[in-house]
Amino acid sequence: MTEAAEGVEPAANKAPTTSVLGAFASTWQSFSPDPADDDAAKVAREKAEASLRDELGLIVNAENLVVLAGSGVSFSVGLTTQTGPDSPRAPGMSELWAAVTALDSYTAAVAKIREETVATRNLELVLSEAVSRLALGDDADLSAFVSAAETEVWERCNFVGDHSDLTTHELFLRKVARRSTRLQRTQVFTTNYDLAIETAARRARFSVIDGFGYGGRDFDGGSFDLDFVRRRPQEQLALEPSVFHLLKLHGSVDWDGTGNAVQKVSGRPEAPVLIYPSVAKYRLSYQQPYLEFMSRFQIALRQPDVGLIVAGFGFNDEHLVAPIEAAIRSNIGLRAIVVTPDARDAGRSGTLAWIEDLITRGDRRLTLLDGTFGELVRHLPDVPQMEERDAHSDRVAQRRPSEVR
User: Fold this and answer.
1) Beta strand pairing call for 251-256 and 272-274
2) Sign of the alpha-carbon torsion through 343, 303, 177, 223
3) CA 181, CA 29: separation in Å to the nearest integer?
4) In sequence order, what are the residues at sequence separation of 6 or more whose Cβ sits closer than 8 angstroms to the Cβ of residue 255?
5) How many C-alpha atoms does 111 have within 13 Å on its Cβ side?
6) In this model, does residue 147 exceed pLDDT 80?
7) CATH superfamily of the 4-82+164-250+285-391 domain
8) d(C-alpha 16, C-alpha 21), whole Å
9) CB 31 within 8 A of CB 49
10) Contact 312, 194 (CB under 8 A)
């Protein structure tokens, strides 16, 4: 599923509060009602919410819209009313750690890993050390553990199915991917292995350009340069609406690398194409097909008019953090919002602290939302501002009734 080391999973016993920091709110403004609020506090909260919607409107109507969806986005996947509480859901890092430590191969392998590494209870660190030791020489115990751990991660992250409630994902796509066809297609980059976005797109009747061509099975990076058009009799070709690009930065549970090409398969792949949580992900991210995604991610952030939405991402993956920080430093045409329930936590990443500092020093391009993916979707404007203008242009461009014979 997940950029597993991000740690953006629901925090135990954390109060469900939402607050924002941006050019329109130079200090953190809470959106959570307080019975003690006076009229001035209520007005300030309402004004901040309206300003946030306006800012999100500018972001989603930029010429280029880029979304980076981290593990926190998958935590919004719910369960339908027909399912029980034991139906599979997005795993957090603590759940993955518990599953891996319960493996039969864990005891023998952990004896060959440093105690201080195991004491961190960090799956990425433990797998990283196991992989590093295997690189120095074969070890049956470590090899069995790494293989079993990777299988466990794949199984836990293959949780999306008919039982999954993807209402939030579907609404998000309607708000960010149903843009004017005069703008560039929305590019959704995700570190998650799961099929939440693809399934939500299918349910909401969106067309997805994901690097596998028109219903094809083999990966071909050049297919991102193709598009969907509608042909009607006696009319010009027109770009089809409700189309977006999906680029899975760490692989997908339905990708198989058995042959010479990466293929999309139904059922369990023989050789899953995933970047598992270990230090190897930095090296693997610059091999195909991940290199294609990383290149397009970096290029997208350099565009002169780009809106960036970062949701559920903890800024701990260096190979993704570096391009974002570079864009913030150099791209004056960037407008960005970062959404995470850890935005104000003491243990947050240095990048989040840096972004907060830039905002407080007057950087009007940036906004921080201390909240969940669901809160972001709630505040996104229902109808992109450009949509009505485009519809009006289309209406007046049609011939008048008197001209129709």
Assistant:
1) antiparallel
2) negative
3) 35
4) 219, 248, 262, 263, 264, 265, 269, 272, 273, 274
5) 6
6) yes
7) TPP-binding domain (3.40.50.1220)
8) 17
9) yes
10) no
259 and 248 Cβ atoms separated by less than 8 Å = no
CA distances from 361 to 145, 196, 351, 364 (A): 49, 38, 15, 9
- Which pTM value belongs to this model? 0.88
Q: Report in angstroms the alpha-carbon separations of 233 from 230, 237, 238.
A: 10, 10, 12
List alpha helices for 112-256, DSSP H: 115-119, 123-136, 140-157, 167-176, 196-203
Structure tokens at 186: 């929305």
| CA neighbor of 223 nearest in space, from 236, 214, 231, 232 | 214
Are 149 and 97 in contact, with CB atoms under 8 Å apart?
no
The strand pairing partners of 207, in sequence order, are 243
Confidence at residue 40, expressed as pLDDT on a 0 to 100 scale: 83
Locate the domains of the chain by residue range. 4-82+164-250+285-391, 93-157
Secondary element (H or E) of residue 359: helix 350-360
Radius of gyration of the CA atoms of the chain, in A: 23
Asked if 314 and 69 touch (Cβ cutoff 8 Å), the reply is no
Which percentage of the chain shows pLDDT scores above 90?
A: 57
pLDDT in tens, 34-90: 777 778 888 888 898 999 999 999 999 999 999 999 999 999 999 988 787 778 889
Length of the chain: 405
Per-residue pLDDT for 123 more than 60? Answer: yes
Distance, CA of 15 to CA of 384 (rounded, Å): 32
Residue that is written with structure tokens 């980059």 in the block: 189
Is 195 in contact with 252 (CB distance < 8 Å)? yes
Could you say which DSSP state residue 209 is in? E
- Is the pLDDT confidence value at 17 over 80? no
Rounded to the nearest integer, the mean pLDDT of the chain is: 87
384: pLDDT strictly greater than 60: no
> Would you say 278 and 128 are in contact if contact means Cβ atoms under 8 Å apart?
yes
Token code pair at residue 162:
């008919």
